[in-house]
Amino acid sequence: MVDFEKLRKDRGVSKSIDPIEIFRRLPKTSKINDLWNSQAEALREWNIRRKDKDIVLKLNTGGGKTLVGLIIAQSIANETDGPTMYLCPTVQLTEQIYNFSKEYGFKTSIYKKGSSFDADFLSGKHIMIATYRALFNAQSKFGTTESIKDYVHLNGIIIDDAHAAFSNIRDYFILSIEKKSHPELYSELCTLFRNDFMKLNKAGTFDDIVNRSDPSILEVPYWGWKQRSDQIREKLAETISDTPPFVFTWPLIRDEFDYCHALISYRSFSITPLYPLVDKFPSFSKCPRRVYMSATLANDSSIIRTFDANRKSVSEPITSKSLAGVGERMILAPALMDIDPNQIENIVKQVIEKISTNAGVLILVPSNKDLKIWMDIATVPRESKDVKEYVDKLRNKKVGAYAFSNRYDGLDLPDESCRLLVMAGRPSGDNIYDSFRHRVLKNSRVINTSLAQRIEQGIGRGTRGSGDYCVVILLENKLISWTSMFSNLELLTPSTRAQLEMGNEISKNVSSLQEFEETINKCLNRDISWVEYHADSLAELTDPIQPDVDSLEIAESERKYFKHIRDGYYDKAISVLSEYDNDDIDEHFRGWLVQLCARASYYWGNESQATEFQKRTYSLNKSLLRPQVEPPYVSLSYLGEQSRTIVEPILEHKLRKGYLLKFDEIKSQLNPIATTNQFEESLKRFGSILGFQTQRPEEEEFIKKGPDVLWILDENKALIIEAKSRKKQDNKLNKDEFGQVLTSYEWFKDKYPRYQGIKVVVHPNNYTTDSISASGTYALTMDKLSAMLSNAGILISELCKSTAPSETLIAKCESRIKELKLTPEGIIERFLTPFESSVE
User: Fold this and answer.
1) Nearest partner of 679 among 783, 831, 785, 820, judged by Cα
2) Same structural domain for residues 660 and 615?
């Protein structure tokens, strides 16, 4: 028998380090004969910069990043004769990449838990493929700064899906005491901080979370955390530190409590460092070559926040102008179609049932609770391990519909394995830290950047190359409204942006189930008119996306801050972040950065400076910690010309109907079925849509005074609104409720002495009991509120459907708000009814 491997070795062919030459020597298969231009460009550029410690490499989803990453890893291994790793987020992906590597002739091995490293890996003969977790855990076989054994000196690390690593890597640094598995310990830890929340007037929220499963998340105030962290450290060391799963996290954070968030949810009491402690892993931090393979997005700041990568290197990514790998996607939004909104879910389900008989269908939802509505037509995994089984079925051409929760990356479903992808809802956080960050930084650019990455990844699951095609359906008003805004579209890749714009235009021309199905079939049946339309629309996209340099600079400063406070240089930590308190950054994120300064000041021992920083934090972002000293109430100011204030947010949407969907969402919560919180928040947002300055004083200022909702109508009038939306139709306004109205009115007169305050109660009728005289108090009945919403809907619909320029649109709005009685005077005259006494 001829031993070809021996003959190959006997020839003594030298190992090449040139990546193009390495590819040339790979065995060619029916699937791969040559590199795409984009792959060759990336490899040549990397070869020039191969000595750089940190390099970001961007290729389109489906653009052959895996092959490029393996070639780079092989080049490093050939040059150094030492260990090189290829890291990816999930076990499923490691298996996919391992199989891929074998198919194309690479020498690779897959990480095996509990097994020692083989000589082929350590000598650089094999590339090791592993998950992030294999490296980043306290019991890592590669070694940590906390372990006594020497660490593995890696010569190169390829990090796949680096843009998505912020959540994945964060997971490995969260120590969570789950209420379900450790109820007594959870209760004990939470109770330690109840007084802190009581002083902040948050005891009610705290109790609802801990005792009644409220979905909110509270951050333990850093001052309370500092006072009790030693006590908690001792308690955890005694009880759980040496038991699974805590052994994989505890050694990493036990000495870092001063630099951790403590977060309370109804599920867990969680401790996690301000930023991932990647320096605890010398195999990573001392590795001379780290390649971050990322999606083609503008903002890679998460790579710096996660891995402490070099900002200059990240700001100069290796990219390509080529569209290689960009799959064909028809992105449709039923909410933009001229069909009954109440029928959208049923219509989409009918489409899914038809397509799933011949091809794979994937439904992506934000959370497990959202899976329920799809159980009648799709297979839903009961455990996380089921996902791999179902993905394998799809990849093996076993057709059907499958619904997965929060799986926006790591799934490769090419060709017939996914011809229809339904993205049912806007993505949310992966873990408690993500969810907390989304809550306190809502609508900030840093969160929208994260959402853009997840949306981009989500809709890319069904097309894995330039020859692939898929129909994508976007469901839920929040998702469609988000994708319609100019500022958010800028965060997406040019190809996805173009496909969204095409899809929006297509959707607006669909008016029935039949047309919906016919449109989808244009893509699935390879109608030439659709194929050419798509190709023409993408043909002009040749310019690579430009890095968001400002965001990278801020991320680098956050990392510097973290290093300074861990080293005890609190003054430097404060200095590096305080300069960002300027109007160039949105207020929510500025508040986050200023609170980090407050924290450093407090740990430095300068409590007065910490208080001043925390006051500033709270003035910028009410979702962050209220200072221990009660801040003064800041009166709202008149926003100016009502019509201009109404129109300006509409103009922020490239697709103006996306703003109409936002109004529809608000309208849907203004009914007696909604919870008190939902109703009051929607009433506040409704006032904003009408161009007024609005507030929920009790909720936003934590002063336990003032009305449920306040609308500043103009320069001298305001509505002081109490909401009794859940009362029965024949209930009358009683003495206690009227007392609340008077108390809120007195508060208003104190805070707004120059304003005329109009007392309003949202109430099922305009009758009071005979024990009170409600002169000067008005009812906004549910019927009148419904009428006002109807008129507002007419206004917003007309403005959103118009293509007029801004000044023309403002003039139109000015005329229509008068006709629809939506001016301050019109609202008072048309929709408010005086209360009348009625004998019970």
Assistant:
1) 785
2) no
